[in-house]
């Protein structure tokens, strides 16, 4: 063997001293794509409204004049096209796959855009699912996107690992609900992000309370909040509490999430300085 140059990124030999950096694992995006910032939206468990929050974040960013995209990485439970009222199937050519575009110009890509029927189940094993998510980054022609939000599947399995290792994620947003059990699961997500050296930008506590439409008193149906305690413990800069809002749920069900005003995320998005 020739003398070592100590440049593992260009070396073709496999030796005991070989070191692979995070940058070596990052997959290149499509040559015709351009994405400035990537934010992954995660949750430690299902049922906390992660996909709804992802959609709301994308709409809020779009209303600030940013070119926005959503990569739906929740392969076995995709809901982003339904939330935005997108029914078209993915198209492409030799250069790559074209994302769908919503009424306000938000680009999206989801496995539902590849299925013959939206209700067809995705019966794939982990490596195939992870590979599909990676292809949504490498093969899709994202058009001059200021900020992309990735709707992650719940938990800390194959797909989150693939995303964190293969896509240049600039930060994550953790979605949770008020129960004390969930706060323990949130800490798992925070610790995973720390191990992957990805900053946690904020915590969104969904369904934090119900505000009476008559007296405007807040009722904490699922118990008191724990996000401020967790945010303080891990120095997470932003905490956002979203109330239980039937109108937002109706927007998602009707594919009209772009009617959402986005004001809940003003402070958070301004702090990220995305523009």
Mean pLDDT: 88
Q: Regarding CATH, which class?
A: Alpha Beta
Poorly predicted tracts of residues: none
Q: How far do the termini sit from each other? A: 50 Å
Binned strand content: 15-25%
User: How is the biggest beta sheet arranged?
Assistant: 8 strands, mixed
Q: Give the number of domains.
A: 1
The count of helical stretches stands at 9
Architecture, CATH level 2? 3-Layer(aba) Sandwich
Helix content: 25-40%
- Rg calc: 20 Å
Structural class: alpha/beta
Strand runs, count: 12
What does this structure look like?
With 275 residues, the protein is of the alpha/beta class. It has one domain: Rossmann fold, CATH 3.40.50. Helices cover 31% and strands 19% of the residues. It has an eight-stranded mixed beta sheet, sandwiched between helices. Strands 3-4 form a two-stranded antiparallel sheet. A hairpin with a 5-residue loop joins strand 5 and strand 6 (107-109). The longest helix is centred in the C-terminal third of the chain and has 16 residues, at 180-195. It is globular, with a radius of gyration of 20 Å. The model has no long low-confidence stretch (mean pLDDT 88).
């Amino acid at each position: 063997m020739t003398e070592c140059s100590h440049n593992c990124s260009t070396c073709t030999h496999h030796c005991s001293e070989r070191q692979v950096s995070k940058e070596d694992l990052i997959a290149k995006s499509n040559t015709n794509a351009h994405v400035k910032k990537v934010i992954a939206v995660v949750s430690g468990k299902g049922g906390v409204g992660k996909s709804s929050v992802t959609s709301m974040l994308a709409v809020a960013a779009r209303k600030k004049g940013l070119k926005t995209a959503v990569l739906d990485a929740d392969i076995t439970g995709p809901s982003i096209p339904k939330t935005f009222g997108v029914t078209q199937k993915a198209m492409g050519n030799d250069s790559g796959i074209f994302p769908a575009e919503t009424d306000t110009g938000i680009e999206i890509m989801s496995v539902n855009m590849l299925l013959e029927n939206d209700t067809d189940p995705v019966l794939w094993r982990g490596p195939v699912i992870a590979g599909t998510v990676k292809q949504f980054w490498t093969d899709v022609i994202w058009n001059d996107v200021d900020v992309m939000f990735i709707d992650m599947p719940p938990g800390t399995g194959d797909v989150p690992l693939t995303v964190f290792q293969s896509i240049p994620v600039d930060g994550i947003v953790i979605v949770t609900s008020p129960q004390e059990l969930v706060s323990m699961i949130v800490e798992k997500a925070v610790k995973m992000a720390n191990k992957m050296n990805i900053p946690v930008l904020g915590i969104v506590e969904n369904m934090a309370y119900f505000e009476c439409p008559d007296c405007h008193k807040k009722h904490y149906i699922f118990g008191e909040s724990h996000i401020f305690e967790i945010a303080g413990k891990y120095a997470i800069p932003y905490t956002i509490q979203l109330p239980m809002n039937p109108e937002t749920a109706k927007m998602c069900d009707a594919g009209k999430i772009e009617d959402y005003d986005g004001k809940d995320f003003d402070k958070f998005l301004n702090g990220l300085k995305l523009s």
